[in-house]
Design brief:
Blueprint lengths: L17 H4 L27 H12 L2 E6 L2 E6 L2 H7 L5 E3 L3 H5 L1 H4 L11 H10 L5 H27 L4 E2 H18 L13 H15 L8 H4 L1 H28 L6 H7 L11 H14 L2 H16 L1 H15 L14 H13 L5 E6 L3 E3 L3 E3 L4 E5 H4 L3 H4 L13 H6 L18 H18 E5 L7 E4 L1 E4 L3 E6 L29
Parallel strand pairs: 2-8
Antiparallel strand pairs: 1-2, 3-5, 4-12, 5-8, 6-7, 9-12, 10-11
This protein binds manganese protoporphyrin IX (MNH).
Length: 508
């Protein structure tokens, strides 16, 4: 697949290597045993680069570097360093490593666009209203009906006495949710025994993007020849699927004002510009991928922890009974009222932020926390799972699952920028409210309907394909017997109100 626009900045070639960008690299520790040429690859596992980095982080501290195949990378996770890098007047998103490897798939789509590419601002302005409160309220009935497909499926599994495949089913759920709410498209995921070919192709491209980082780039065409051919076929399949969706919409003459309608019809309020057909294709792929993979992982981790902590599940369930009462179909406003369920989700995202890293670059010569000089263009990878376990912020029990860390008082007492599962600044996640609404709704529905039991002997293992997912997680279900008597909702449980920018109204 050909790249369209790739000139990232006006900086000289090679400048972005840590050696040139960080004049005082000697202040940044690296692993003790370095192998000539290969670098810090001892004990590294190609399949789990993120978890390897977490191990190095524990050994080396809040800022460290790793060398792989002649390239040096700087990693950051200490809370004060991360907060400093959130300063939008000196730092911005860096499109590098895994994200840059997705350019052949997603091009200048919202997630993979370089900051300077005009299509970023254009698409952001055109699509942000698709994530407003009103838009979300519009998606709610569709989300609910997809969730009912899931509970129908789980009811059947339960009756058959089978354990459920959590990551598999959460992936079906979140893919159907984004494809139907955003694009009016039904992949029929719950009617299939095997994942939809779109999912297979998508997982293929994500895994390939991750693998590209594990081989020296000049050798990639040689070492990954078969995988590269496969990847090209995957991309072609994704493009074809999307083109058909767009074609169908054009022929039908418009949907109900969903994301696809916005992409096709909406002009920029100031410039009157609209997204080009090529860019629409990139955006559809971006949203189908970014809109389901990470939410599916978050739901899966949350269900794992709920099954492991019956007392937490019981408390969450009591809240659902109390807030939703007898209502069969919770209304849009009733979802944000599940405050404790939301804390369970936040706590899962703390331990396993399913998009586990984001990169930041200096937009001018500066000093990171006054200690580490950086030249313009120098960058670092922020390791959110480590930031979220920094004992200075989260205490000595940071590894423990405890949703009360997210009660309002605890949140207020923490410094800003200590919880960053959705990234930061102008390029933070546009789908944050969408994901939180969907996941809270689904957890509420599942808690209300089932008791969850872990598979005996299951130990959490985490697989990586740029995103994180609990591997092989299966749960046993029981139908709930009694439902607690519903109590009226108190005023203090009322959700926050008022329109907020879905991107900038975050905890930044
Ligand atoms: Mn999401 C950007 C995490 C759900 C669409 N998302 C990001 C970033 C993180 C992230 C982190 C910033 C990456 C970077 O700085 O390089 N996103 C998540 C998580 C979930 C999630 C943990 C679920 C949980 N994201 C969603 C959903 C959608 C979505 C749902 C769409 C419906 N995310 C995006 C897009 C971007 C993004 C689009 C790029 C935004 C931009 O750069 O303007």
């Amino acid at each position: 697949m050909a790249e369209t626009t790739t000139t990232p900045t006006a900086l000289p070639k090679g400048f972005r290597d840590a050696e040139q960008g960080w004049p005082h690299l000697d202040r940044i520790p690296h692993p003790p045993r370095r192998v000539p040429l290969l670098g810090d690859v001892l004990g590294a596992d190609r399949r789990t680069p993120l978890q390897d980095s977490l191990r190095f982080a524990r050994q080396l501290g809040p800022i460290f570097r790793r060398k792989a195949f002649g390239k040096e990378f700087v990693f950051v996770w200490g809370a004060d360093l991360v907060a400093d890098m959130a300063d939008e007047s000196r730092f911005a998103k860096h499109v590098g490593l895994g994200v840059a490897n997705l350019r052949p798939v997603a091009g200048d789509g919202l997630f993979t666009a370089y900051n300077h590419e005009p299509n970023w601002q254009l698409a952001h302005d055109v699509l942000a209203p698709g994530f407003s409160r009103e838009a979300m309220a519009g998606y709610h009935p569709m989300m609910l009906s997809v969730a009912e497909r899931l509970t129908d499926h789980w009811d059947r599994e339960l009756t058959a006495g089978r354990a459920v495949d959590v990551p598999g089913d959460m992936t079906k759920l979140t893919l159907e949710t984004i494809s139907r709410t955003g694009f009016g498209h039904d992949f029929g995921s719950f009617e299939r025994d095997r994942p939809h070919p779109f999912v297979t192709a998508m997982v293929g491209t994500l895994s390939y993007a991750q693998r590209l980082n594990s081989v020296p780039s000049p050798l990639a065409p040689l070492l990954l020849r078969t995988a590269t051919r496969r990847n090209e076929a995957d991309i072609a399949y994704l493009n074809r699927t999307v083109d058909e969706m767009v074609q169908a919409r054009r022929e039908s003459g418009g949907g109900d004002g969903d994301l696809l309608d916005r992409m096709l019809d909406t002009t920029h309020p100031d410039t009157g510009e609209r997204l080009s057909p090529e860019n629409v294709r990139r955006q559809v792929i971006t949203f189908l991928v970014a809109g389901h993979e990470t939410t599916s992982g978050s739901l899966s981790f949350a269900l794992h922890y709920l099954a492991r902590h019956p007392e937490i599940a019981a408390r969450a369930r009591a809240e659902v009974d109390q807030v939703w009462g007898e209502t069969q179909t919770p209304a849009y406003d009733q979802v944000a009222k599940l405050r404790y369920v939301r804390r369970v989700l936040d706590e899962s995202l703390r331990l396993w932020p399913t998009a586990p890293a984001y990169a930041r670059e200096a937009t001018r010569d500066t000093e990171l926390t006054g200690v580490h000089p950086m030249r313009r263009g120098a960058w670092a990878l922020i390791l959110t799972p480590m930031l979220h376990r920094d004992p200075e912020v989260w205490g000595a029990d940071a590894e423990e699952f405890d949703p009360d860390r997210f009660d309002a008082k605890a949140v207020r007492s923490r410094a800003p920028h200590t919880f960053k599962p959705f990234g930061t600044g102008a390029r933070a996640c546009i789908g944050r409210q969408f994901a939180l609404h969907e996941a809270t709704l689904v957890l509420g529905l599942l808690l209300r309907r089932y008791e969850l039991r872990p598979e005996p002997g299951y130990q959490l293992r985490v697989t990586e394909r740029l995103t994180l997912m609990p591997e092989g997680l299966r749960l046993h279900l029981d139908r709930r017997t009694a439902t607690a008597a519903p109590a009226p909702v108190t005023a203090s449980e009322e959700a926050r109100s008022g329109p907020r920018c879905p991107v900038h109204g975050t905890d930044d």
